[in-house]
């Protein structure tokens, strides 16, 4: 992931963008936990709401693959297809953690 290009496309310096993405990661992880718990509790509405939240934030920051995956999870949850939403959630979780790794790597770069 090219953090510098993403930052520039959003009108931020790389440092500003990394600060925003740090908050995004925290909120996204919370949304993933909320989705996981909602799916376990058969609460399709809450799972869909959490996916919707993550989808919007991902889209606003230019993480379009994550946006697409969260949109899929949202649609599945709101259709009460929690089995498929659970599978998609695994992919969403992996994508959030990949972004976190990329940001950590960028923060550690000289």
UniProtKB/TrEMBL annotation:
Domain HPt: 13-110
Molecular functions (GO terms): protein kinase activity
SUPFAM superfamilies per record: Histidine-containing phosphotransfer domain, HPT domain
Positions bearing Phosphohistidine: 52
Pfam families (alphabetical): Hpt (PF01627)
One GO term of the biological process aspect: phosphorelay signal transduction system
Coiled-coil ranges (or none): none
Keywords: Phosphoprotein
UniProt name for this protein: Hpt protein
